[in-house]
Amino acid sequence: MSTELITARKLMRTYVSEAERVDAVDEVDMAAGGSEFIGLFGHSGSGKTTLLNLIAGLDTPTGGELWVNGLDLLAASEDERVRLRRETIGMVHQTDHLIEEFTAAENVALPLEARGVSAREALVEASELLERVGLGGHEARFPRQLSGGQRQRVGIARALTGGRRVLLADEPTGSLDSANASAIFGLLRELCDDGRLVLVASHDPACRQFATRTVDMLDGRVVSDEPTC
Length: 229
Ligand SMILES: Nc1ncnc2c1ncn2[C@@H]1O[C@H](COP(=O)(O)OP(=O)(O)OP(=O)(O)O)[C@@H](O)[C@H]1O
Ligand SMILES: [Mg+2]
Fold this sequence. Notes:
By secondary structure, the chain is α/β, with parallel strands linked by helices. Helices cover 34% and strands 29% of the residues. A hairpin with a 2-residue loop joins β4 and β5.
């Protein structure tokens, strides 16, 4: 059996309106597994966010094949997509969407409690994850008491709850200065080296230094897919 977490074959996402037809993702082939950090690059509008949303089951392919952790995303039900995001795929965005009234630990614990884990157990896992992302000792801080880079780390910890093995990040350092951006890429690399699959859409060239593999997109197509030295 394949150990691949993501398999795309001739994957398509076409938007059709009266005025135009846009192949936002156009015949993309990709296979990826654990311990890979894929940096996804390309000009604005090249299809990076569309591809991440397809993989997360937030959007539906219009053609080809897409399998994520064994789930066929052209055929999956809404319940199966929700389960995929709950159990397998964590997402990180440019802005962290933390809840300001909750502490760092409570923010991380929230998705666990939402799936029925007891408050105590959820806080234990949250503390472990905060430690893992370099925020040991910051559990009781509120988001306003954290720096931008620290807030983003809380968002990453939250995305990893429940042992999720795939982390999708869309411009995770878009709001950070270069030192903080490199630190976040360094953390994402560590999380990859722990065995996870990390897929990061970025305009930041620094991302290339941390990725194990870089994929460049142009007009919805993958134009290069290379291991990084
Ligand atoms: N809901 C939509 N309806 C129609 N076209 C869309 C929709 N969403 C995205 N597109 C188009 O799909 C293409 C890919 O967009 P996408 O957001 O994936 O690009 P991107 O690489 O993430 O860009 P950026 O670097 O600016 O974030 C663009 O041409 C965009 O205009
Ligand atoms: Mg985008």
